[in-house]
Amino acid sequence: MSTAEVKAASEPEPGPGDDAGGEVVMAGPDPRPDGAAEADAAAPDRHADGPAGSTPPTHRLRRALTLTCVLALLLAGAGLLLQARQLTDTAATRNHALTDTPATTRVIGDVSNTLGKVFSYVPQDTRVTEDAAKELLGGRAAGQYAALFGELKQRVADQKLSLTTHVVRAGVTRLTHDTAELLVFLDQRAQRDGKPATTAAAQLSITAELTDGHWQITDIRAR
């Protein structure tokens, strides 16, 4: 056996796992310090929902909507409280025409009787009407009536005029313990001696004041 044959016989034949180029790649332990691999495995995915520890966009939107709803409810509640306070502390609640039926009925009765007396007369005796006006009218209404009736009295006697006034409807628009405002609808029937009677409707705004237990008309305005 030659030297070449001996050398060939002494070299092992390549196995199935040997690299074709003659290099064998060996798998060894991780050269990084102990625990580094475990830390990488346990670390959260920093790119899934943004930086670590940040709130996801869906949660932020839900929180913003919740705060908006709470704010809207608070504002609505504050508005209702303000309206309730206004209703309990306005002139509407001090207007006894809305709550005091006996007082409302009384002022309507006094004012209606006064208007029926001071706006009704006959040519034979106008003194009755004048006396009623002096007793039942006050303030600006008394001065207005005195000036008007002073001019009318002579015509009533000369033309034999008569006038009858009836209150058809009256309503109190405002009432306190000593003042009242009313809206009154009248029917008036006028007649000259020997001629047919004529009928007319009138509408008055009345202001009255409580004086010595009686409602006295202090202002009369035609509407």
What keywords describe this structure?
223 residues; alpha+beta
Strand content: 15-25%
The whole-number mean of residue pLDDT values reads 76
C-alpha Rg (nearest Å): 53 Å
Global morphology:
elongated
Which ranges are low-confidence, i.e. pLDDT below 50, for 5 or more consecutive residues? Answer: 1-11, 14-28, 41-50
Helical amount: 40-55%
**Numbering strands along the chain, what is their spatial order in the largest sheet?**
1-2-3-4
Which class of secondary structure composition applies to the elements?
A: alpha+beta
Terminal CA distance = 151 Å
Offer a quick outline of the entry.
With 223 residues, the protein is of the alpha+beta class. The chain is 45% helix and 23% strand.
Tell me what you see in this structure.
With 223 residues, this protein is an alpha+beta fold. 45% of the residues lie in helices and 23% in strands. It is built from seven helices and four strands, in the order H-H-H-H-H-H-H-E-E-E-E. Strands 1-2-3-4 form a four-stranded antiparallel β-sheet. The longest helix is centred in the first third of the chain and has 32 residues, at 57-88.
